[in-house]
## 1
Amino acid sequence: MPELLDVEGFRRFAERHVAGRAIRSVHVLDRELVRNRSARSLQSALAGQRFGTARRHGKWLILPAGEAELLMHFGMTGALAWAPNDADRHRHDRLVVVFDGGELRYNNMRRFGGVWLARDADERELVTGSLGPDAATLGPEKFAALLDARRGGIKAALMDQHLIAGLGNLMSDEILWRARVHPEASVGSLTPHRRQKIYHELRAVIGESSRYGRVPHGRRWLTRMRDDRDASCPRCGSRLSRTRVAGRTACWCPRCQRR
DNA sequence: TTGCATGTTCCGGA
DNA sequence: GTCCGGAACATGCA
C-alpha cells in the first residue's frame, strides 16, 4: 500500500482521530517493530503526552508527542486503524496507542518498516536518513536541478528517496506512463521538454489522487491495470510489458513509452 | 511448491 | 563518489 499518497491518507486519519488527545497507554504487541527503543521506554516516553499536528515527509509519518516524535514507516503492508475499544484487534496490529474513547492501531502484515521514537530533529534524521524534498511540494526548478545532477535511469531516480521523497513503484510507473517515457530511459537522454512533462505528470498524479488518499483505481489509471495478467494500456490498448527496472517490476506500455 | 508483492538496506562490481 | 543488480528481510496469496 504505502507510497506518499497512502501515507498522506494516514496523516489525515491520525490528525482526525488523535491530534490534541492525551495518550493513556501504549501497547507494544510486536517488540521487534519498535525499532530504536525498548517497549518499556517507548511506553514511558509517550504515556500522558498529547499528540500534536501530524506531519509527513515522503513515506514517513511524524507524530509529535510532547517533546518527542513518534515516527512511523509502513513498509509495503502497513496501515493505521481506529477502534472505539480493544475488541477485535487484528493479529497484525503491532502497536496500539490508547486514548479515552478509542485506540489507534499500527498494523503491518509483512513487518517491513516499523515505529521509532525521536527525541529531536537530529535523531529523526538519523532514523529516516537524508530525504529529498517531498514530492507533493516539490517545485519545477528544484525538480529540474535534481535531475540535472543525476545520472542513471529515470525510474530509479524517481524512486530514490534521497533525491525525491515519497514516490514508489506504482507512482513512478504511473507518472512515466502518463509522460510517455520509457522506465529505463537514462536521465541524461531526456530533453528539457520531456523532463518538464514528467514534472507536470508528477504533479497531476499527486493532485488528482490526493482526495482519495491513494492512487485511484479508475479506468484511465495504469495502477488499476497492473494487477491483471493480460493488462492492456488504458490509452492505446496495447498489451502492457513487465520488466525488472531498478530492482522492481515496472509496468509500462511498449507502444506509448518508446525509448 | 513456486513466484510475486506498493518498502529499505547492504554488498559487490563496473 | 556514483550507479546498478541482486540478495536479504517477513508474511500471505494466487
## 2
Amino acid sequence: MFDQGDFIEKTSEQYFDEENNQFLADRYITGTCPHCSNERAYGDQCENCGTTLNATDLINPKSARSGNVPVLKETKHWFLPLDKYENWLKEWIIEGHKDDWKPNVYGQVKSWIDHGLQPRAVTRDLDWGVKVPLPDTDGKVLYVWFDAPIGYISATREWAEQTGANWETWWKDPETRLLHFIGKDNIVFHCIIFPAMLKAEGSYILPENVPAFEFLNLENDKISTSRNWAIWLHEYLEEFPGKQDVLRYVLTSNAPETKDNDFTWKDFQSKNNNELLAIFGNFVNRALVLTQKYFEGKVPEITGLTEEDKKVIDEIGQFPAKISHSLDLFRFREALAEMMNLARLGNKYLTDNEPWKIIKTDVERVKTVLNISLQICANLSIVAEPFLPFTAQRLADLLNLETLKWKDAGNAEILKPGVLLRNPEYLFEKIEDETIAAQVQKLLDTKISNAASTFKAKPSRENIEFDDFAKLDIRVGTIIEAEKVAKTKKLLKLKIDTGIDKRTVVSGIAEYFEPEAIIGKKVSILVNLAPKQLKGIESQGMILMAENSDGTLGFMSPPEGFVNGSEIR
RNA sequence: GGCGAGGUAGCUCAGCUGGUUAGAGCGCAUGAUUCAUAAUCAUGAGGUCGGCGGUUCAAUCCCGCCUCUCGCUACCA
C-alpha cells in the first residue's frame, strides 16, 4: 500500500518529552484542568470533573514520565484516506448488502458513511508496538486497528506454513466466502477500515458478511477479563471435565444475535438438565437401552412401514436442509433449536409407539420401531456435529458408525441391520445445585476481591499547617428538607439545620439517595464555605461524603446523640 | 448532545412486504405413561407486543414524541 501511494503523510504538533526522547500519549501528560482547576487532570480527560480534554488544553502540562514540561514538536504520521473509499463503500455495503447484512451492522456502517469519512492515522508515536517498516521512523508504530487485521492474515499464513496449506486460498480466492465474526463494538473496523485496506491493496477478497454479535454479559454484569469477571476456559475445562459441549450449547442457545444477552450459571444448569440431558441424551439412551434389552444390542431390521413411520422418515429427511439454511443466515440459535427438534421427534416416536408394551405381542413391529429410532440417533450424530462436536463423535462411536459427512444425513438407512452397538453410556450427566452454587460463589468472591484489590488509595496530598485546617468550620447538622433539582441528574437541594441557622445546600448526591429517604439524617457540614450558585440556587456549605472505590457515596455521619451545631475537629 | 441497534408471555427468543382468537423452547399446572439420568408424551394457564399520540376500514409491524438498555461518536462549560 505504501508503494502504491495509498497513504497521506501529514505533520502536526504534539507534546514531546525531551528527557525521554519520545512523544507523549495524551494519558501521559498531566496538568491543570481548564474547567475545574484540578491539578491532576490527564491529557485525555479530567477525572475530577469528567471532562474530555485535548492534551493541548491543559494548563501547566507536565510529562508523567519525567515530570518535565513537555514541548510541542512536529511529528509526521501516515493516514489512510478513508474519504477516498466512501463512494466505493456506499456501493458495496449500502447498496450491495442492504438485505443480507444484519440491521445493527448495516445501520452503523450507514451512519458512519452518512457522516462522511475522514482520513485516519494508521501510525502512532509509541515506544511499544509494531514498528513502522520505513526509514527514519524511529519511535513510530502501527495503530492497533491497522496492524490487527494484518495480524489475521499473518496468523493464517503461519498456520498454513505449519500445515502445508495455501494461505492465499483463504484471503484471495474469489470462490472463498470470507466471514468476519465480531462483537458490535468492532463494526467500524471490520466494515470500513479493514475493507478499505483490502480494497486499497487490491489483491484481496472482501468479507461476504460481517455478522456482528451484540454483547454477552455474565450474571448481569459486563464481562471483563481485567476485573476477572469472566469464565476462564482453562478453569472451566478443569472444573467441568468432558463438558465442552455443554458450554457450547449454552453459548449458542444464548448467543446475543439481536441484542445483549446474559449468561447465568442457573441457566447453564437448566439447559444442561432440561434440554441436553432430558431431551437429547435421554432419547439416545432410551433407544440404545431398548435395543440392548430386546435385541442384544444389534440393530434390528425394518419389517414393514406404517403410514406414520413413513411420515417420520420424511421428517428426518428435512432436518439437514432446515439446519443448514438457518446456519447460512447466521441464525445459530434457530439452527440449534432445529437440531434439538430431531431429538424431540425421536422421543415422541418412541412414546407414541410404545415398544416396551408391544414387545409382548409383536416383536416384528418393535424391530421396525427401534430401527427407525436408531436411525434418528445416527442422524443426530451428524447434524449435532456443528454444535456439539464431542457429543456427536461419542454418539457415532456408540452406534459403531464411521465418521460421516453432512450429506450422509437425512435418510433412515444410515445404520445397517445387524450392526452391533456399544453398551449404552450417558452423553450428558445431571449438574447439581451445589455445583452451580459453587460457581456463583466463585464469581461473588472475585467481586469482593475486586473491590478490595483494584482500589488504589490516592497518594496523600501536600502537607498543610494546622492553621489551614483550623479554618474549616465543620458542624453537626440535620437534613430537614430534600428535593431533586430540576433538569439535573446529580443534584439535590437540601435544607440543613446547622444549629446556627437553617440553610440551603445543593449537593451532588442524587444518584445515590432518594430525597425522602434522607430527611432526618445527621450529617457533617462545612458551614463556612463561600456560597456558590448552582443551577440558580445558592448553595451555602457542603455536606461531607465518603466516596467508595466504586464511586458510591456515603454520609460522614456524626455519632448518635450529638446535637446540631456541635463542632467537628 | 448526535447516530445506530434493541425494549413481544416468569426466562430466552420468533413474528415475512400492516388483516380473522400474537407464536416457540424452558419454567409452571393438570393428565397419560414407565423403555429411560423423577427423564418422556399430551393438554392447559400466562402477554393492553416499553409509554403517549397520529396515519389507516384495520398496526406488534408505518409516522411523531417520550422513556429505558447497549454500542459508536461529539462537544460545550
## 3
Amino acid sequence: MEMNQFRNIADTLRRAGIPVTFQRLEIGRVLLSEPVHLSADQVLARVRETTPETSRATVYNTLKVFKEKKLIRELIVDPERVFYDSSTHPHYHIYDVTTGMLCDLPEDDLKVVGQPVLPPGMELEEVDVIVRVRSKAA
Amino acid sequence: MEMNQFRNIADTLRRAGIPVTFQRLEIGRVLLSEPVHLSADQVLARVRETTPETSRATVYNTLKVFKEKKLIRELIVDPERVFYDSSTHPHYHIYDVTTGMLCDLPEDDLKVVGQPVLPPGMELEEVDVIVRVRSKAA
DNA sequence: TTCCATGCAAAGGGTTTGCACTCTC
DNA sequence: GAGAGTGCAAACCCTTTGCATGGAA
C-alpha cells in the first residue's frame, strides 16, 4: 500500500502515457489497486479521505483520461450515475437495482455466443452484459 | 392510425390497468404503434406535434407508469438520457456511440448462454446486452 | 515562458417535485 | 367533493465548463 504501490501506479500511468501528478496518483490508488466499481462521487470521497483539497473537476478530468487510455472502463448501468470499473478485460456485470450494488459476474455463469453483424464502416467497441436483479418481495 | 388505432391503444392501456386519458393516448400512439427507441424528449416532441400543450412532467409521469405496467422497457445505454423501447420481449441492442442511434439486434446474431447464479433472496429482473459500435476512423 | 493540471464556482441538461387547476367518478 | 391527472416553473443532481492560479519542463 505504501511506496511500492505508488511506484506501481506511477509506472502504470507512465506506460499509458499519462503525465504523473499527485492527484492522479491518489485517484489511481483508489481505482487501480484492486478491483472496484465506483461512481465519480465515490472516487472523490475516497480520495478526499487522504487528500481533502481535491476538487471534483479534477476527479472528472482524471476519470476521463484514465478511460481514454483504457486504464478503467466506464459502466452505463444506472441513469443516475456512471460507474468506473478497474477491470478492463472483457467481463459482465450483475446490478442490484434496489441497492445500487454492482459486481462482476463469475466468468462461467454466462456466455455470449455469436458475432453481431455490424453495419459497414462500423467497428465494435464493446459488448456490455448487465444482469439486473432485485430483492424478492417478502 | 385513426380511430382504430386509438381504440387499440385505449384497450392496451385498460388491459394494463392504466386509466385512459387523452395525453396517455397520445403518448401511447407515439410509443406503442410501432417498434421505436425514443428518449423522453423525443417522445415529448412527437406528442407536441399534434398536442402542443402537453407538458414535460406528464410525459415523464406517463413513461414511468408505462414502464411499471411493462408496456415499455427502459434502456440504460447512454449517460445523457434514458431511452424507451416499445418492444418488451427479451431482445438485445446495438448502440452507435457516435450518433446515438439505437437499434434492436437481430435475434440470431448473439445469444446469451447460461444462467447467472443469483445471490439468495434476489430475483432476476432482466438481462441487458448492448453492443456498442463506433464509426471507423477514416 | 509555455503548457498543462488543478481548484473553485457557475453553468448545463435530463429528470423530478411542488403546487394549483381541472377533470372524472 | 375526493382523488387523480395535468401544466408550469422551480428545484435537483450529476457532470461539464470557464477562468484564474500554480507547477513542471
